[in-house]
C-alpha cells in the first residue's frame, strides 16, 4: 500500500484487529449461543451481552479463564448478539444489564439509551483508500470523486472525519452506498475511485489492487480522536445498584489490564472461549490499541475520553443518527470507572 503524506499522528498497536472476526461471527455464534460463565461461584447474577469476535469478547473470556468473576462475587449470564443495537434494545427491555458496543453504535449512548461504564479497545483499523490510477493522493483530492462506503459504519465515520479535516463537506464527494462486502468488489473492479473501509477487508482488496493508496487512517487522528468500543449498562443501573456496577467494572478493568500485558495469550483465551481454532485469531494484533486502566483513568480525568465521545457524537449528527446528542459527561460514568476495583488493588 502506498502512503502519500506525512501521518498526523501514530498510535501504538497492542492488540487484535477490531474487525478481524466479522467473518467469524456466524461461526462463533453457532458454537456458543447463550452461555453462563463457568466456575463463577455464585454471587450477584448479571446478564451481559457480547459479540462473538475478539474485541467483543476478549475481556469476558479472560475474566472467565482467570476466575475474575468469582473473585468479585459476580455470576454472569453471558448472551451472544450479532450487533450493538440489538443489545441496547435488550437493555431497554430489561433482558440485559450490560453489553458491548462497537464505535458505530455509540450514537445510542449519546441518545440516552445506555450508559458507558468502560472503554474497552481503541479501533485503529479504518482507512480511506484510493485506486492507484485515480490521481487521489491527499484527502483534498477526494472532492468530486466516487467513494464506496457502507453507511452507518465506522467506514462512513472515517470518511466524514477525513473530509472534515480537509475542509470538505460530505456532499463534496459522491458517496456510493453499499454493504461492506460489495465495497471490496466495487473498489477492486474500478467502479469507484476510492473507498472507506477497514481491515481485514483491505487485505482482500490489496490482493487484487496491490498498489492502492492509503489516503487517511484512523490512527492519524489519535489521540485527539479515535474509535473506541465500549461496555455499557442500562442507564439507570448505576443509580439503582452502584455496588454491582462497580464490581462488574472492576472485573473489566482487571481483565483489560491482563490483556494489555498478554495480548498474544489473550487471543488464545478468546479463541477457546468462542470455540474457534486458535489460528483464526492468532497474530491478529495490528489494528486495536488496548490501554491499561491507569491510562484510561488518566485520559478520562483530563477530558480526552470525553472528547472522543463528543467528537463521534458530532459525526453521528452529520450521519443523521441523532439530532441533539447528550454530552459525554451525561452518559460516560468516568468517576465510577476510576473508583471501581481500586479497593481490591490497595
Q: What class, by secondary structure content?
A: alpha/beta
Biggest beta-sheet profile: 6 strands, mixed
Question: What is the residue-averaged pLDDT?
Answer: 88
Estimate the helix proportion, in percent: 25-40%
Task: Write the element-wise H/E pattern from the N-terminal end onward.
Answer: EHEEHHEHEHEEEHEHEHEEHHHEHHHH
Treating each run of at least 4 consecutive H or I residues as one helix, how many helices?
15
Radius of gyration over alpha carbons? 20 Å
Can you say what the CATH homologous superfamily of the largest domain is? Periplasmic binding protein-like II
Protein traits:
single chain, 346 residues, alpha/beta, D-Maltodextrin-Binding Protein, domain 2, six-stranded mixed β-sheet, four-stranded antiparallel β-sheet, 40% helix, 19% strand, globular
Amino acid at each position: 500500500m502506498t502512503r502519500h503524506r506525512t501521518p498526523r499522528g501514530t498510535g501504538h498497536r497492542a492488540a487484535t484487529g477490531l474487525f478481524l472476526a466479522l467473518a467469524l461471527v456466524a461461526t462463533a455464534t453457532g458454537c456458543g449461543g447463550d452461555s453462563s460463565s463457568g466456575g463463577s461461584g455464585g454471587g450477584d447474577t448479571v446478564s451481559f451481552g457480547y459479540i462473538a469476535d475478539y474485541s467483543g469478547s476478549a475481556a469476558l473470556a479472560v475474566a472467565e479463564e482467570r476466575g475474575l468473576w468469582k473473585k468479585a462475587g459476580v455470576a454472569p449470564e453471558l448472551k451472544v448478539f450479532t450487533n450493538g443495537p440489538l443489545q441496547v434494545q435488550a437493555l431497554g427491555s430489561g433482558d440485559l444489564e450490560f453489553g458491548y458496543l462497537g464505535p458505530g453504535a455509540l450514537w445510542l449512548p449519546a441518545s440516552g439509551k445506555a450508559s458507558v461504564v468502560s472503554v474497552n479497545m481503541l479501533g485503529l483499523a479504518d482507512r480511506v483508500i484510493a485506486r492507484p490510477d485515480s490521481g487521489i493522493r491527499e484527502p483534498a483530492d477526494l472532492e468530486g470523486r466516487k467513494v464506496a462506503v457502507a453507511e452507518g459504519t465506522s467506514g462512513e465515520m472515517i470518511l466524514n472525519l477525513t473530509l472534515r479535516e480537509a475542509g470538505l463537506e460530505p456532499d463534496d464527494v459522491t458517496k456510493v452506498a453499499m454493504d461492506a462486502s460489495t465495497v471490496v468488489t466495487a473498489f477492486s473492479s474500478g467502479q469507484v475511485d476510492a473507498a472507506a473501509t477497514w481491515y481485514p477487508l483491505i487485505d482482500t482488496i490489496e490482493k487484487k489492487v496491490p498498489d492502492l493508496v492509503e489516503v487517511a487512517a484512523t490512527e492519524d487522528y489519535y489521540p485527539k480522536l479515535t474509535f473506541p468500543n465500549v461496555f455499557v449498562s442500562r442507564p439507570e443501573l448505576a443509580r439503582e445498584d452502584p455496588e454491582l456496577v462497580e464490581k462488574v467494572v472492576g472485573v473489566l478493568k482487571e481483565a483489560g489490564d491482563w490483556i494489555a500485558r498478554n495480548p498474544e495469550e489473550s487471543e488464545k483465551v478468546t479463541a477457546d472461549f468462542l470455540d474457534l481454532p486458535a489460528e483464526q485469531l492468532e497474530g491478529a494484533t495490528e489494528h486495536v490499541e488496548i490501554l491499561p486502566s491507569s491510562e484510561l483513568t488518566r485520559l478520562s480525568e483530563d477530558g480526552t475520553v470525553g472528547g472522543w465521545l463528543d467528537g463521534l457524537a458530532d459525526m453521528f449528527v452529520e450521519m443523521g443518527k441523532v439530532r441533539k446528542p447528550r454530552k459525554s459527561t451525561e452518559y460516560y460514568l468516568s468517576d465510577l470507572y476510576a473508583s471501581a476495583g481500586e479497593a481490591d488493588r490497595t
